[in-house]
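Saturday, quiet lab. Running sequence design on the structure tokens for the scaffold JK sent over.
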């Protein structure tokens, strides 16, 4: 990981590892680069919090992401569509598959269809609350 990059950093509330597994199954190539649990750094935590993600680094289609599980129940910061992750898909098969997987249990903000700026485009908020704009460029 290049320290000079600007990387998206996602804060989850107990389901960061589930989100990482989901995203790395949706996008290829992908990998989990590192994952440290709260219990690794703070062994005196409650049992339920020890397995939560203190810090993780993963990549999707070459983009590096970071995330955590926030254990502070008093300060919840929900995701909003005002910030979204824009994904350029390489094929119609890819955009169809990614749209289907990200919209499962989520919300379609803009349906997958052709547009004036794109061969296919969609905007979804996934089951974790993260917003994704999916694009298949005009050829």
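Result came back. Writing it out in full:
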């Amino acid at each position: 990981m290049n320290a000079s990059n600007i990387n998206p950093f996602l804060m989850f509330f107990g389901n960061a590892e589930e989100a990482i597994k989901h995203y790395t199954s949706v996008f290829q190539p992908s990998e989990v680069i590192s994952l440290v649990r709260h219990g690794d750094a703070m062994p005196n935590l409650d049992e339920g919090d020890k397995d939560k993600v203190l810090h993780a680094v993963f990549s999707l289609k070459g983009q590096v992401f970071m995330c955590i599980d926030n254990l502070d129940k008093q300060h919840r910061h929900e995701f909003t569509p005002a910030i979204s992750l824009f994904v350029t898909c390489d094929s119609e098969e890819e955009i169809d598959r990614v749209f289907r997987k990200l919209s499962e249990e989520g919300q379609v903000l803009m349906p997958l269809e052709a547009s004036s700026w794109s061969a296919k485009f969609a905007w979804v908020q996934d089951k974790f609350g993260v917003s994704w704009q999916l694009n298949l460029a005009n050829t």
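Notes for JK: The chain is about 20% helix and 40% strand. The chain has two domains: 9-69, 84-136. Ask whether to fix the surface positions before the next round.
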